[in-house]
């Protein structure tokens, strides 16, 4: 938390009341903390510390319980969201009557916190077999996973730059270690180093931008920054614009936006598959949550600057991601993970479209801007469910054959029909084809925001990219249902003696992860309004 939100004493005028603060006429009164509001990220952080301490005392066999305990902790951390959904609560507020708070449990924060906790829970399920198979240190793995989740859950509730940047770093630093946790694996070490160096550079640029903004506006709270950028000295306009652009860099990096995407394919391939799944959903959610908060709240008054920039970045990101995914060869090692990595970059482009469309209303109609940003949240909910499910299937195939080529999925339906059906469903959702109805509806919601806000050229580019993506999604789907055994010797050897019929049974936690994500995709496809309400203004 920032210094502005620490438990401090002050002497406000007698009789005044500030949300999150007890005041009176007797003198200085200590600032209060709404523990229910901050319960979700706090509970996850405490659980992470508890797991790390428990690891010191448990015998080797007992450490297998740390995974289920971590999953249970994430479920418990989500319980306060049920009580918070009926009210908007802000805490860690300044005692100056301006209602500037550093933490807000509003609808946007609660929805994204639920998404982070649910995605982390599924990651726990698909991680249990990987921790055992790869002989990862259990205590360290679960501690790092919970720590990164706590940071990601804090990001959407942050309402000042210091809290936001610290939350993003809390989500990022454990992720570096998770990527490189396979000791003795050169690819894992290289991926972690690339991820670390590029992330540190992005963070340094973001902090430089934040310092520029503070110099121009004199505040770090979002509302104060928005007001300060409007009424600033004309001589400081250039400095404010530079600060705005530089601050967005770190969050664009986490969201894997081109040209800050170069770490994605190598990092996903070098990391254990569950960690790649975690980065593709939870890490992306943290980055996009930061972008939403910054453009809709902190930089609302300067939409003429960030709006066109985000539109161009959206077009470039979806085009580069889909073009690179299209080039993945079926016989390339780790081709499945690499294709999902580039697909994740392409999906980031779609997620940016509603944010770019929010620019015209950001300064004058903030509620309409938030409505446009709601389409990003709606698309993110769909993407999180089906992308985690696809990674869960990939994690199972990775247990059978370490190469994890796309060709290794040939004949999957013959050995594991339910897994093949689930994979096909997930890929069709990402492509936006029936029966993945929620994928189609989410894309239509994003497309509509672009058209309604005068970004017809961006809508055309999006439509072209959706058609391009159909090819590689359908090609992978067809491969899973094609007759025959795995086409590569490595896949056959990894399948324990030979064919698709010899693949090992799906581990129970992996089955649960696939089932949960498939169920979420089916429910959302049957009732798209559960998600699309956010695209229609449910975040107001």
From TrEMBL:
This is NADH-quinone oxidoreductase subunit N. It holds the Pfam family Proton_antipo_M. It is found in: Cell membrane; Endomembrane system; Membrane. Residues 158-468 form the NADH:quinone oxidoreductase/Mrp antiporter transmembrane domain. Belongs to the complex I subunit 2 family. InterPro entries: NADH-Q_OxRdtase_suN/2, ND/Mrp_TM. NDH-1 shuttles electrons from NADH, via FMN and iron-sulfur (Fe-S) centers, to quinones in the respiratory chain. The immediate electron acceptor for the enzyme in this species is believed to be a menaquinone. Couples the redox reaction to proton translocation (for every two electrons transferred, four hydrogen ions are translocated across the cytoplasmic membrane), and thus conserves the redox energy in a proton gradient. Its main location: membrane. The chain crosses the membrane at residues 35-58, 65-83, 103-126, 138-155, 161-183, 195-222, 242-264, 276-299, 305-325, 337-357, 377-397, 418-442, 454-474, 506-526. NDH-1 is composed of 14 different subunits. Subunits NuoA, H, J, K, L, M, N constitute the membrane sector of the complex. The gene is nuoN. It is a multi-pass membrane protein. Its EC number is 7.1.1.-. It catalyses: a quinone + NADH + 5 H(+)(in) = a quinol + NAD(+) + 4 H(+)(out). Keywords: Cell membrane, Membrane, NAD, Quinone, Translocase, Transmembrane, Transmembrane helix, Transport. It is an enzyme of class 7 (translocase). It comes from the Bacteria.
């Amino acid at each position: 938390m920032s210094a502005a939100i620490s438990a401090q004493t002050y002497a406000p005028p007698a009789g005044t009341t500030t949300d999150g603060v007890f005041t009176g006429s007797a003198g200085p009164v200590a600032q209060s903390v709404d523990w229910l509001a901050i319960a979700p990220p706090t509970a996850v952080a405490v659980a992470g510390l508890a797991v790390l301490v428990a690891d010191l005392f448990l015998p080797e066999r007992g450490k297998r319980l740390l995974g289920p305990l971590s999953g249970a902790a994430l479920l418990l951390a989500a319980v306060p969201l049920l009580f918070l959904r009926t009210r908007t609560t802000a805490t860690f507020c300044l005692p100056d009557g301006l209602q500037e708070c550093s933490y807000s449990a509003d609808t946007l924060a609660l929805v994204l916190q639920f998404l982070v906790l649910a995605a982390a829970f599924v990651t726990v399920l698909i991680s249990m077999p990987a921790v055992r198979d790869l002989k990862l240190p259990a205590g360290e793995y679960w501690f790092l996973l919970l720590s990164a989740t706590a940071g990601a859950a804090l990001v959407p509730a942050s309402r000042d730059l210091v809290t936001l940047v610290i939350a993003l770093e809390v989500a990022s630093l454990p992720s570096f270690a998770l990527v490189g946790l396979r000791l003795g694996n050169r690819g894992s070490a290289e991926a972690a180093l690339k991820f670390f160096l590029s992330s540190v550079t992005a963070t340094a640029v973001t902090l430089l931008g934040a310092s520029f903004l503070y110099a121009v506006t004199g505040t770090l709270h979002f509302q104060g920054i928005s007001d300060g950028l409007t009424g600033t000295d004309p001589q400081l306009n250039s400095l404010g614009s530079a600060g705005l652009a530089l601050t967005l860099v770190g969050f664009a990096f986490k969201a894997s936006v081109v040209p800050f995407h170069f770490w994605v394919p190598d990092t996903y391939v070098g990391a254990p598959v569950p960690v790649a799944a975690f980065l593709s959903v939870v890490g992306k959610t943290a980055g996009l949550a930061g972008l939403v908060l910054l453009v809709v709240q902190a930089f609302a008054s300067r939409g003429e600057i960030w709006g066109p920039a985000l539109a161009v970045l959206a077009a470039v990101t979806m085009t580069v991601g889909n073009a690179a995914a299209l080039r993945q060869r079926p016989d390339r090692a780790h081709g499945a993970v690499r294709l999902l990595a580039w697909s994740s970059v392409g999906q980031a482009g779609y997620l940016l479209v509603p944010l770019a469309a929010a620019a015209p209303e950001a300064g004058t109609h903030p509620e309409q801007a938030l409505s446009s940003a709601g389409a990003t949240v709606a698309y993110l909910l769909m993407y999180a469910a089906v992308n985690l499910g696809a990674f869960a299937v990939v994690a199972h195939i990775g247990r059978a054959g370490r190469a994890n080529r796309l060709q290794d999925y040939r004949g999957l339906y013959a050995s594991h029909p339910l897994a093949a059906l689930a994979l096909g469903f997930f890929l069709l959702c990402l492509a936006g084809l029936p029966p993945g109805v929620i994928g189609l509806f989410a894309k239509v919601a994003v497309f509509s925001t672009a058209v309604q806000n005068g970004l017809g050229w961006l809508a055309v580019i999006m439509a072209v990219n959706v058609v391009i993506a159909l090819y590689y999604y359908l090609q992978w789907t067809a491969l899973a249902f094609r007759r025959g055994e795995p086409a590569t010797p490595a896949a056959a050897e990894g399948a324990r003696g030979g064919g698709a019929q010899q693949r090992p049974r799906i581990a129970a936690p992996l089955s649960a992860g696939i089932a949960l994500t498939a169920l979420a995709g089916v429910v959302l496809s049957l009732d798209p309004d559960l998600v699309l309400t956010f695209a229609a203004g449910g975040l107001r």
